[in-house]
Each structure stands twice: as structure tokens, then as C-alpha cells.
Automatic annotation (TrEMBL):
InterPro entries: 4Fe4S_Fe-S-bd, 4Fe4S_Fe_S_CS, EFR1-like, Flavoprotein-like_sf, PSI_iron-sulfur_center. The keyword Cell inner membrane does not apply. It comes from the Bacteria. This is Ferredoxin. Residues 188-216, 217-245 form the 4Fe-4S ferredoxin-type domain. Its cofactor is [4Fe-4S] cluster. One of its GO terms (molecular function) is 4 iron, 4 sulfur cluster binding.
Length: 255
């Protein structure tokens, strides 16, 4: 049986969880392919029997960039495809997967399992969101590794295990996600670079939205930012500024 894993990851958290799923599935003798949503990969080209999708969440809702990808790239299948979805987060709150579930239903994919995994905070540009200590990150990794096996066991048995939020919160989360996603490009214009910038182009080459252009060997930020934090984290000299201030780089740099 074939399993396809599709994920979007800003700084490595969601990718790391995708790799945990991959290893757990290989141990169960499944044939597995793993692809980032940024790759030029056509999901219809792979004859998968099960689908795993992963992404970070913004405001208790899956990042809209990932939902748009699935809407445009998943084809409607003749047979129902059991699907497992996960989000990575800094905290411990529930995620509203209802929008994703409706999208999958249109593609004849059935959401069996949805789960939020606590990992670490990479959104360090706002003082209200503190960094995750190494001790907390280590514990979060231990917990998620212990949860993946049971999640897969129930998933392959067809036992539904889905996170739910009350309808009022679902509406609030969706509206908030849409509004803030539309505001992100404006807020993203506050990114600049310091004199320490060495013009290496890593930020421009790695931006998932191709939002960064090099002008006179310096990065210039456009209006398509989704605040994935990859540019700040990837800079070898930490030269990316937000609102004129240097930001601490994410502790999982390079993962």
C-alpha cells in the first residue's frame, strides 16, 4: 500500500514531524513518498492509497498557503482516500480542521485523523511570543514521537480521531486567519536587512513565495509574505531585520 506525505514547513518543525511519520510508516512496511508543497511535484502522478498532510497553523487555523496548494493540486479520486492531517504549533490548543475537511471531501478524500503537535515557537518577531526552551522542545519531541504510532494504528483501522472546536470558535478562527493572511503582505513590508548582509541570496532563494528580490546585492521584500520566518532563520549572519530591529534566530536553525 502506498502512502503520500505532503507538507509545508517554514523553519523545519513540520518537516521534522513528516520525517517521523515517514520512518514510522516504513517500519510498518508501507511504500512512502514525502514531498514538500514547494516542490514541482504533481500528487496525481503518484498512485497513493493513503494521504498524510502537514502544515503549521496561524491563529488556530491551518496556514492558508497550504490549503490553497491542496485545493489546486489534489485531484478528485474515484475511490475514497483516507487522510491524516497534522499541524505544528508552539502551544497546546486545538486546531480548526473543518475547512480542510470540507476541501478534502470535494476531492473524495476522507479525513480520518487530525492532530496538533506541540513543537516550538519560531515566530520571534513579536515580543508576546517567547522562545521555546531546549528542555520544552526536547519534551515536545518525546511526546510527539510517542503519539505518532498510536495515531497511525487508529488511522489504518479507520477509527476517526479528529480535533473539534465549537462552531462559534470555528467561524472566529477562519475569519481571523483570512484577515491576518491579507494583512501579512503589508506587515511583511517591514522586513529589511542590516549592513551586515553579505549578499549571499539565501533568503531570496529559499523564500517559498519568491517574495524576496536582490537589488544591488541586498534583499528587497515584496507584498507576498506569509511570515514563515525562513528568511530570518536561514540568514548565516542574522542580517534580516523586522521593523528595524534584529530578531533572535530560531533555536532549531538548520533542521
Amino acid at each position: 500500500m502506498n502512502v503520500l506525505i505532503l507538507y509545508f514547513s517554514g523553519t523545519g518543525n513540520t518537516k521534522a514531524v513528516a520525517e517521523e511519520f515517514y520512518h514510522a510508516l516504513i517500519l510498518r512496511d508501507y511504500t512512502v513518498e514525502v514531498h514538500s508543497m514547494e516542490e514541482k511535484f504533481n500528487p496525481a502522478s503518484y498512485p497513493y492509497d493513503f494521504l498524510v498532510v502537514g502544515f503549521p497553523k496561524y491563529y488556530e487555523y491551518p496556514v492558508l498557503y497550504a490549503l490553497d496548494y491542496l485545493d489546486h493540486n489534489l485531484k478528485k479520486r474515484e475511490q475514497i482516500i483516507p487522510t491524516l492531517a497534522y499541524c505544528t504549533q508552539a502551544g497546546h490548543s486545538l486546531t480548526d480542521f473543518s475547512g480542510l475537511e470540507r476541501l478534502l471531501r470535494k476531492k473524495n478524500h476522507r479525513l480520518i485523523t487530525s492532530k496538533s503537535f506541540s513543537y516550538a515557537n519560531n515566530l520571534l518577531i513579536f515580543s508576546m511570543f517567547g522562545s521555546t526552551t531546549p528542555e520544552v522542545l526536547k519534551e515536545n519531541k518525546r511526546i510527539l514521537k510517542s503519539q505518532i504510532g498510536p495515531q497511525l494504528d487508529g488511522f489504518f483501522l479507520g477509527k476517526e480521531s479528529k480535533e473539534r472546536v465549537v462552531w462559534s470558535r470555528s467561524i472566529l478562527y477562519h475569519i481571523t486567519a483570512v484577515v491576518f493572511t491579507k494583512l501579512m503582505p503589508i506587515a511583511g513590508m517591514k522586513y529589511t536587512s542590516s549592513e551586515e548582509c553579505i549578499g549571499c541570496k539565501i533568503c531570496a532563494c529559499n523564500c517559498p513565495r519568491k517574495n524576496i528580490k536582490m537589488v544591488q546585492n541586498k534583499p528587497v521584500f515584496g507584498r507576498k509574505c506569509i511570515f514563515c520566518m525562513r528568511c530570518i532563520n536561514a540568514c548565516p549572519v542574522n542580517a534580516i531585520l523586522y521593523n528595524g530591529k534584529k530578531i533572535a534566530q530560531y533555536l532549531e536553525k538548520g533542521e
